[in-house]
Amino acid sequence: MCVYKNDIPSFFREAYKTALNQTLVPTEFVLVVDGPIDSCLAVEIKHLQELCTKESITFNRIDFEVNKGHGEARKAGVLGCKCKYVAIFDADDIYDNTRLKQQYDYLEANPEISIVGSQIVEVDSKTLAPIGRRVLPVEHDDIMKTMKIKCPINQMTVMFIREAVLNVGNYQTFFHNEDYYLWIRLAIGGYRFHNLDKDLVRARVNPFFYRRRGGLEYFLSELRIQRFLLENNLIPLPLFIFNVFIRFFIQVLLPEKFRSTLFKLFFRKKVVCA
To answer: Which helix (H) or strand (E) element contains residue 193?
Structure first.
């Protein structure tokens, strides 16, 4: 888990508590503190360390003097882990207490798979009211097809074999796309993926969520991803042109309020209450 100065202490508290309150208790908890933080977050980190000690979980804190961003923070976190399997947790999401058990059991039973994710339910950051589901393909072949169009794995849901990620160069800095870039490199390396067809994470969405998925800088990052796919023969030229055109329209030309509506209508599914 990575935390930085803009993370909300109460959200962080719920995230690390649900990460620890698992039916399969983690062996270690690696926390990357990405730059200076305030006293409220420092208190929460102290509480987290106390909880880990109480549960006999090894606590490893890695501090950056300045904020370096998600790519470098996650890279340091993976390097700081000692276990075969690494699970990624965001500092503001809420986790099903069976998440680690389900993913660990799946990887143990399917040694040909190196990365396993799940579906997510996006919720209002304050009320936790469901907004929509981000549903991604389950099987490897379908994940590979989706990778040609968009990121096929929900970042905050993944558990992977640490050695596989290190073998392809670990996380790297890539504006808002450090995860997608990693999945592509893993695919090139011949590693196999799976998504559990279960909602194991409730991901908080705030009013700025869709704003971050637009703008020129975001588009240029997406353009680099598409070029990388093209250069490695994962997509043909016509699909490259189509992908770039769609992204330019949505991320640069489309006003923010319409972008938000578009995401909700076409890229998210409704949550059906049982």
So the answer is: strand 193-205
Q: Residue 67 burial (CB < 10 Å; 0-12/13-18/19+)?
A: middle
Length reported for the chain? 274
Domains and CATH numbers, the chain: 2-206 (3.90.550.10), 207-274 (no CATH)
Contact 248, 219 (CB under 8 A): yes
- Cα(183)–Cα(163) distance, rounded to whole angstroms? 14
Provide the 10 A C-beta neighbour count for residue 143: 21
Listed residue (186, 131, 175) closest to 153, CA to CA? 186
d(CA 3, CA 90): 8
> 217-260, pLDDT tens digit by residue?
889 999 999 999 999 999 999 999 999 998 888 878 777 665 56
What secondary structure does DSSP assign to 83-99, as a single string? Answer: SSEEE---TT-EE-TTH
Scan for tokens 């040909």, then name that residue. 112
Query: How does DSSP classify residue 233?
Result: T
- Secondary structure letter of residue 263 according to DSSP: H
Report angle CA 249, 251, 257 to the nearest 5 degrees: 100
